[in-house]
């Protein structure tokens, strides 16, 4: 099934080494290696049949390659978010021009302060959107998101997070009613109706796989998750994200798919 035609990514900047990190995966990113991994990521996306818009690196924002956070792009509208991390908040102003190339102004909405929202907290399941209430996404941001989605005939429900950075750090939808779940999401009542594939604790990072037009891109180094995704019948592509992982970033964080 072809669902996505377009992807937006942003090249990592040299300041990537100063990006926000929980320290869960120690070490500073190696910029040169991060660039090579980004090249491979773009190639993997192209193999999934999408065109890829590559935005230039922005040295003002160390985390700006995690382009999923400043926008949410849906079938019916685009939402420019209001990132809750102060050092990332300005990224929202830098994504607008790229979004305008694909969405007319009447279909673009904006999350306004005091609402905060980051795209990594939003998981699309058809026309329903699960949104994580996190350190980055607050109650008012979720209220505004719900109102905007309703205006375009879509729905939204909140998921409370306690352990992870973003909702999609720990749970990702692979279409066909299938979800990869790890940690605090394994027993969430709202996900019981899906076919849940439980990720072993030692491979929790790889809960962040992405489905792109019936191919699933899986991070390198997680054999149990790779085997589980293959068993589901998906074509897989493995991409090394080691340098982004040091900043708690994963495959979904690195692109907007729409
Ligand atoms: N380092 C990615 C983030 O914290 O948003």
Characterise the protein shown here.
There is one protein chain. The chain has 258 residues and is an alpha/beta fold. It has a single domain, classed as L-arginine/glycine Amidinotransferase, Chain A (5-stranded Propeller), CATH 3.75.10.10. Helix content is 22%, strand content 24%. The chain is built from six helices and 15 strands. The relative contact order is 0.18. The chain binds glycine (GLY). Residues 19-21, 63, 66, 85, 88, 247-249 line the site of glycine (GLY).
Short note summarizing the structure:
This protein has 258 residues and is an alpha/beta fold. 22% of the residues lie in helices and 24% in strands. It has six helices and 15 strands.
Shape: globular
**Total DSSP E strands:** 15
Which ligands does the model contain, each kind named once?
Answer: glycine
The profile of the biggest β sheet is: 3 strands, mixed
What is the count of distinct domains?
Answer: 1
List the uncertain runs: none
What is the share of helical residues? 10-25%
Overall pLDDT level: 98
Tell me the strand percentage band.
Answer: 15-25%
Secondary-structure class:
alpha/beta
- The H-level CATH homologous superfamily, spelled out, is L-arginine/glycine Amidinotransferase, Chain A
Secondary-structure blueprint:
Blueprint: E1 6-10, H1 31-47, E2 51-55, E3 71-73, E4 78-80, H2 91-100, E5 108-110, E6 122-125, E7 128-133, H3 139-151, E8 155-160, H4 167-170, E9 171-173, E10 178-181, E11 195-198, E12 210-212, E13 215-219, H5 223-231, E14 235-239, H6 242-245, E15 256-257
Parallel strand pairs: 1-2, 4-5, 7-8, 10-11, 13-14
Antiparallel strand pairs: 1-15, 3-4, 6-7, 9-10, 12-13
This protein binds glycine.
